[in-house]
Amino acid sequence: MQNGEALSPQDKAAGAEAMEEQKAQNQSQNQGSVAPTAPPLPPPSPPPSGPPEYPRPKLIFHTQLAHGSPTGRIHGFTNVKELYAKIAEVFNISPSEILFCTLNSHKVDMQKLLGGQIGLEDFIFAHVRGETKEVEVTKTEDALGLTITDNGAGYAFIKRIKEGSTIDQLKTVCVGDHIEAINDQSIVGCRHYEVAKMLKEQPRGIPFTLRLVGPKKAFDMIGMRTRAPKSTEGKMVNGRETLRLRSKGAATVQEVQNDIDERAMKKVDDLLESYMGIRDLELATTIVEAGKDKKNPDDFAEALDSVLGDFAFPDVFLFDVWGAIGDIKNGQM
Asked: Rounded to two decimals, what is the model's pTM?
């Protein structure tokens, strides 16, 4: 074949056959050669040092109705509303019947009030709705003498009555009474600071009506409890740990606060009562935690706004809280 001449169909077929034969020869040669081996696997990692990790056992708490009931057991709650639902399920009542809970005492003892933390050995007493009553109140001074808290599930109630105050003169009003309505306006679902604000705004000299619901009275034969009954069913026994309930997110088990934290929370709770007429250890705990690592009051105020923007704390309150936390940290209080 001369240069420039086109290949005939016969020539093309012969060329294709030659290429196929060459390809087959190459494959045969490759099969006779040794295939490359994969790199060796790395040795297995050594087992982690220390004891093996085991899942935490299920936390089981013992509970009774404060006015008298058999003992029930509850578990699997992460906030107060879920706790009430679990208690209600055990005793076949509605969660809305529960006004508040106390720890290790069936009495209406505000020092034993369940807040944001439950010790792992605490016994929970649920106080349910009892008598409804209406009282007429006339302010004789700006403050009524009430300190308000709430149960975290929509009920605000009286935590303290100041001796000699307007409310102290009304003997039918008691610590532990749930404030259900002001002048026939229901306040169920309002937070304690909202209720305190409504009461502060009532004018002096003009009567208004409070509808109150007292807790059902406890039987005297129920004794004080300081520790839950012993149980081997998944109970973690560690007096230094508590279950921290959170309004958002899951509950966590954590160590109890150190002395500095406890004093700071107590002081902040006192300031909440002075400025806002409320008591709330869970709120005080959140405020102290927000101020722990802050360098100045502006950063502290910004941190509080990010987690507690609903409260709109007055500036003077924030400065007093910041100063109190700093004094306690420095050992000056």
From this structure: 0.67
